[in-house]
Every structure is written in structure tokens, then in C-alpha cells.
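Q: What would this complex look like in 3D?
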Amino acid sequence: MARYNTHQKTAIISFFTEHQTKSYSAEEVSSYLPAIPRSTLYRLLSQLSAEGIIRQETGVDRTSLYRHLGSGCPEHMHIRCCRCGRTEHLDAETTRLIEKLVASSSGFEALDSTIFEGLCSDCMKERK
Amino acid sequence: MARYNTHQKTAIISFFTEHQTKSYSAEEVSSYLPAIPRSTLYRLLSQLSAEGIIRQETGVDRTSLYRHLGSGCPEHMHIRCCRCGRTEHLDAETTRLIEKLVASSSGFEALDSTIFEGLCSDCMKERK
DNA sequence: TTGCGTGCAAAGGTTTTGCATGGCA
DNA sequence: TGCCATGCAAAACCTTTGCACGCAA
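A: Here is my prediction, written as C-alpha cells for the whole assembly.
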């Protein structure tokens, strides 16, 4: 486990503390902290996830997104058409309902960042 | 859009027609059809997805999985801990309930292959 | 001083693409 | 015959890793 507090680590924690409104890709974090090389960035991102300071999610393009764990900023789940790629978001009410269902069924605290995959109405019509 | 019916395409369609019980990675399809190079395989996999013959999903490791679209084989959704990686599946009842919620909210036909990300009970405890 | 963390460069794995050739209609 | 699809190789992309050096404690 981590032992030292380096500037790099401190800088990344500060970044997430100051940016709690959304999730960021490694790319975005890097653009805010250009002095930190990618290798170190990924190492720290992974370490901070393990420490429970930030959390790692999967974005629509399947790359990682990172978010401050204490973020009090509820998001809504998305659904992406696996045929045409169209992505929409579910309303807040549905998102909360699903969170509750998942929690009571699995004991996990589901993230609001989940991306469902499915067929949109247009693509369902196309399907003979 | 596709025009020609080549053996490669026919072979892949046959593969999925005969294997409807689960989703397959490109790697797995390739092991069944070793004569088809990866580039062609990916091109056809993508084309068949667009044609609505198979569908493309995201696996736990974020690589693509492909499944016959007509598959009458219901699966259950999964939830994966974004801290420790532990993955469990939701029971069938919860899965169906969520599918209905998503459908009525978005008009999309949600896939049972969705993977939620969240914090498992152990990791929630560790979080101070 | 000790050994963990960093930085660099290179590798890893999946998926995509350019281009000349081959094969379906 | 005309054009689409294939095959090969190489690239693209995000992320990980090996290794020697630097720095926190």
C-alpha cells in the first residue's frame, strides 16, 4: 500500500477535490496536470481507486473515467444502442429506482454511471 | 451496406446460428474459425452487428462480446465492484424488472448483458 | 539511509486501417 | 466486367510494465 505522499499524488487528490461535478478521463486529468507523465498518472489513479478516494468507471467509449468518491453529484444512467451507437440518459427517477433494486438484490452500492446496452426503437424497427 | 455473400460471412453467421447459448469474444470466434484473419473477422462482426444479425456487448474486461440477436437465451445482469473487481450476478427477477424499467423509461430494449459498476459491501466498509 | 515512487521508454492487448489483390454477382 | 470484400501488415489506442534514478520519511 502507499506509504509516501508525493507532490504528484497530492496534485491528483487536489484535482479531484476541486472537480467533483463530473467524471474525468485520464486524458482530461492529464491536461490539467501536464507535468505528470501518463505512467505515473495511471499508477496513482489506480492506487487512489484502491484507497477509496476516487472511483473508476467505464465510459461510453469503454475507456476509464475517474471521479471523486465523495462526490455529492448524482448522475443518471445511460443507455447506448449497440447497433447505431445512439446514447440517451435515463431520467433521475428511473436511475434511483434501479439503484435501489440493485442494492437490495446484490448488496452493492450501484453507481449512477452505469451504461446499459440495448436496441433503440429505430433499430428495433429495422430488425426484421 | 453489404452486398456480397462470401464464405467468410456465411461461416460467421453459421457459427452464431449454431451457438446461441452465450456471447463470444472475437478471440473465441476466431478459435472456431481459424481461417479467417482478425481484420476480416472484426470487419464482419461489425457489419453483422449493423445488419442486426448479431449484437455487440461489452464484457467485464471491456472487450467486445458478440451474440446472436435472435438468441432466446436470457442472461442476467452483472455488477462489478469498481474497487476490488469482484463481480456477481443479479438474480433473474431483478434483471427482468430492470429491463422493464429501462424499456418504459427510454423506449430501448435493454440487454440483459449490462454490467453495473458499484462498491461491494466489503469495499463499502473499508471506505472511511 | 532505506526503499518506495517516479520518469522514461517500450511493451501489451484489442481493434482499426491502407492498400493491392481476389472473388462475387 | 465492375466493384465489394479479403488478406496482410502496420498503425492506433489506452493502459501496463521494467528498470534505474530520485526523493520522502
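A: To summarize the key features: Residues 92-106 of chain A form the longest helix (15 residues). The first strand of chain A starts at residue 24 and ends at 25.
Q: Very helpful, thank you.
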